[in-house]
Prior knowledge:
The structure is a single chain. The chain has helices at residues 3-7, 42-45, 54-64, 77-90, 101-119, 138-143, 168-172, 198-211, 232-236, 280-293, 296-320, 341-351, 373-391; strands spanning 21-25, 28-31, 36-39, 94-98, 125-129, 162-163, 179-184, 187-188, 194-195, 214-218, 242-245, 256-260, 325-328, 331-335, 353-354, 356-359, 362-365. The chain is an alpha/beta fold. The protein has a seven-stranded mixed β-sheet with strand order 4-12-11-10-7-5-6, with helices on both faces. Helix 4 packs parallel to helix 10 (280-293), helix 11 runs parallel beside helix 13 (373-391) and helix 12 crosses helix 13 (373-391).
Amino acid sequence: MSPMQRKQCLMNTVVRPDPVFVRGQGAYLYDQAGLAYLDWVQGWAVNALGHSPEVVTAALARQAATLLNASPGFYHPPLLELAEKLVSLSGMDQAFFINSGAEANEGAIKLARKWGRLHKGGAYEIITFDNGYHGRTLATMSATGKPGWDTYYPPQVPGFPKARFNDLDSVAALIGPGTVAVMLEPVQGEGGVIPASDEFLHGLRALCDRHDLMLIFDEVQTGCGRSGTLFAWQHYGVMPDVMTLGKGLGGGVPLSALLARRRHCCFEPGDQGGTFSGAPLACAVGSAVLDVLAQPAFLAQVRQRSRQLREGLEALSTRHGLGEVRGLGLLLALAMPDGGAVELVELAREHGLLLNAPRPHCVRVMPALNSTEAEIEEGLRLLDGALAMLAHPRNAVPA
């Protein structure tokens, strides 16, 4: 088959650019022509340590030669080790492992509904938020507040009233006898990288305590060091009752986690599962990645690179007449009030920089957490060139 015919073998679920990437190393992706691209997408914040880091490849090799899959019905060392580490580091009491963030969030929804049946008279409604994002299963799409998603696969799963982000009164107005939980991202990634305010999260914690509701943090994107702390709730000082993790936890290998405090751990055998739940290969990698991410010196370096990146983006915003820079850690966005984010992504790729546009009015940057000072500086230079070309397409010369 020709390259075009091969591409047509794929279902039409995403718009992909023409390059075919064949190799990744650290901060860079390489296409079939040998061209290098500085990757500030990193699999949507999946590659916490960049492409093919030694810690991941070594863990894969060791575990692949020992035990690939024991079935979720048996104990094995990687499962026990990863659960112990996450419980210790997070302050939670129990963990369940699965493959994707959507599955972890689906598990959190199930846990909340069972807890509501046992302890809240059958309450099942989970308050979520406009512009929030929780995944692509039917339930997590219903929990998601992304505009237009309610029309994709009707009817939606009931039980997810939507409040306004950073508006505590809008949450309070939705609480009723059927409410069991509040679920949100500490930073709305797909919504345009909108951080929760300190006042809002502290208010949510108090509101949930007052009404005996579960507070669920979807940290699939903000967790595992992305925010500059190991978990974003530590940045705010607001501990949830349930937390979901994914993306960076596996460092490129499919792995996610559902964590909960003991009071809310009400699953019994048969309530939740999955063929690849807690598989040795994924858990061994997750354990090795977590050993790196949890080091105080590593997290301090993430915060240092975050300051460098934020300051650089703010300087570019001033130079090119753009909007605010927002986000936490190495999950940042540059607002473009006049639009053009999708066009900028294409121009940046021509310059050798990979970006993401979650909304038409902002670009999102998610570099590897172990990016160097020089790599951040290079990305800012490439972005500057793409912005100049966007503003003056006939006169600008690629950097």
